[in-house]
Amino acid sequence: MTAPSLMVSRACATLLGTSARSAERLKTGSRTAVYKVGLSDGRSVIVKLYAPTASRNAITEATAIRAVEAAVPVPRVLGCGAVSDAGATALVTADLGTRTLGTAVRSGRVPHAQALKDLGSILGRLHRAPVARSVPRRPFFDSVSSLARRCPSDLLDRIAPALALIADTPDTAPAVWCHGDLHFDNIVLSGPRHTPHLVDFTDAAPGRRESDVAHALVMTAAHTPWDRDALTSSYPLALDDARLSAWVVLITVRCWAHSIPGKDRALWSSRLTDLTRRTPHLFRTPSTGRTPR
Predict the structure, then answer these.
(1) Which listed CATH number (3.20.20.70, 3.30.1330.60, 3.30.1060.10, 3.30.200.20) goes with 6-94?
(2) Which residues does 74 contact at the CB level (< 8 Å), separation at least 6?
(3) Residue 10: which pLDDT band, with cuts at 50, 70 and 90?
(4) Does CATH place domain 101-282 in 3.10.310.70?
(5) Mind listing the pLDDT tens digit for each residue in 166-178?
């Protein structure tokens, strides 16, 4: 660990009333940075800084964590709020350690199929958490409009059948708390029993359960029918299989649009091609026969 930055020190002083002794940067995104921080009182905490430009911030993340904490294990929120006059915010949570379900899978301690079953069970618990009417839902239009800024129009036209199927979801369908970025490394195994805890609620918001399950399928490379069944068979709530498949297409395209040209882009292009073969009814045949590059 190194000496804490000014913003990390300010977050600890403002939100916890104590000083930071050391800090180790764990993760950096376009609008967030996460640190493991040693406090002067001997505690170790996680500090997440949000840039002023972030549309979702420490306060919205803390709201989501507190809303679901009775349904599924999550890190305890120790403090959150503004830490600069410019609007930067910070979230401070308990440090659960570094062992994740992802590290357990990669080391061979947990088989991939078992991890998918665990993920399905955790998702089911999360989606049973009550959603207050006052919490804003995330409109489907927002997902498409943000994707349109990065995605070629011909690719969006190709997945028009999938988009139409999602858009036709009745407004009466119940919303659930969606994590929004669930994969093996966002499940920390903590405590003497290695209890799985959900972390990183940056993108959490009420939405459709199929979208969250689809995201988990895509981000855990659960492409085969038996992998998909491993996750969904342990998920206790009802799923619309057609809409689930449509969401898988949309999220795969989103990953393709955000991928780096090269091996990463080739990987997502390959997965998109595979989806075209397995679920042709969710794609429109391109008139030119060209694939996105």
Answers:
(1) 3.30.200.20
(2) 65, 68, 197, 198, 199, 201
(3) very high
(4) no
(5) 988 776 678 899 9
